[in-house]
Each structure stands twice: as C-alpha cells, then as structure tokens.
Write a structure and sequence with these properties.
With 155 residues, the chain is mainly beta. The protein has one helix and six strands, in the order αββββββ. Helices cover 5% and strands 19% of the residues.
C-alpha cells in the first residue's frame, strides 16, 4: 500500500460529546440526504478547542464533531483510517450504507509493528523495529522525506 500523495480530503477527531457540542445532536448526518450538509454545525467548543479552529484543516463550515458525507468519484480509491480509541475504553460500531456499485475492503496491513525507535548516531540514525507478525513481506524499505509528502528510499 502506498502512502497518500497529498493532503487528506478530510481530517476529523470526533466523539459523541464533540458532535453534540458542535451540532446540538448526537447524529452526524453521514449519508442522510437532509442532514449530510453541515448546516447544523456551530462555533461551539468541543475537545476544549474552539470549533472554528483550523486544525487539519477543516474547510468551513466543518467543525470539530461534525463530519458530513463525502461526495466520491466512481473509479477512485479512498483510504480511510479509523482509530479505535475511545475516551471510555468502550468499543464502538460503524454502519455503512454503500450504493451504486460502491464497495468497502477492510484490508489489514501485512505487518503488525509493535516497536520502532530512531537513535541519532552522529549525522546518521540507527533505526530498530520489531513486528508481531508479517504476512507476504519479502523485505523492508526505509524512506525519508524533506517535505512529508515526497518520499525516497535510503536503506
């Protein structure tokens, strides 16, 4: 899997409380024809951050806690990263409604990384890592970037 080639389409950190504080409702409106536009978002504070704070950046009027549906393009591939972190350590569920030929592939990455460190060694760096599992991997490639967007192999 290649890293994304540009900035994210959307970046949001949300919870039930953050959504309620930003919109007055626990419903995100994802995929609902009436509620998908972020018209109910307000400049309330969520996560202790003013909802209008440009943290990812969110394009106004998308605020903390409000995540409208995506208008996707047929034939495009979208990477969706979901953290399973919850403030209460209680799990959560997600429901997906896919239409018009859309599909969802929950591909698990082939390497389970459990430890990674970088130690300065003069002008160089000593990288060490440990994996819990590797599936179908023949080697590792270390890359670097000066701009966090364009990467090239160094080892």
């Amino acid at each position: 899997m290649c890293p994304p080639s540009g900035q994210p389409i959307r970046c949001a950190a949300s919870s039930g409380d953050a959504t309620f504080n930003s919109t007055g409702s626990y419903a995100t409106g994802m995929g609902h024809l009436t509620f998908s536009p972020p018209r109910f978002a307000s400049p309330m504070v969520s996560y202790g951050i003013p909802a209008t704070t440009n943290i990812c950046p969110l394009v106004a009027p998308q605020y903390c806690g409000w995540v409208p549906g995506l208008q996707v393009t047929a034939g495009q591939v979208y990477l969706l990263y979901i953290s399973n972190w919850t403030q209460s350590s209680v799990g959560f569920g997600l429901d997906w409604t896919l239409e018009n030929g859309a599909s969802l592939d929950c591909t698990v990455l082939p390497v389970e990384l459990v430890h990674f460190t970088a130690e300065a060694m003069g002008p160089d760096a000593l990288l060490t890592w440990r994996t819990a599992s590797e599936h179908g991997c023949s080697h590792f490639e270390v890359q670097r970037s000066e701009d966090a967007e364009n990467f090239g192999p160094i080892g």
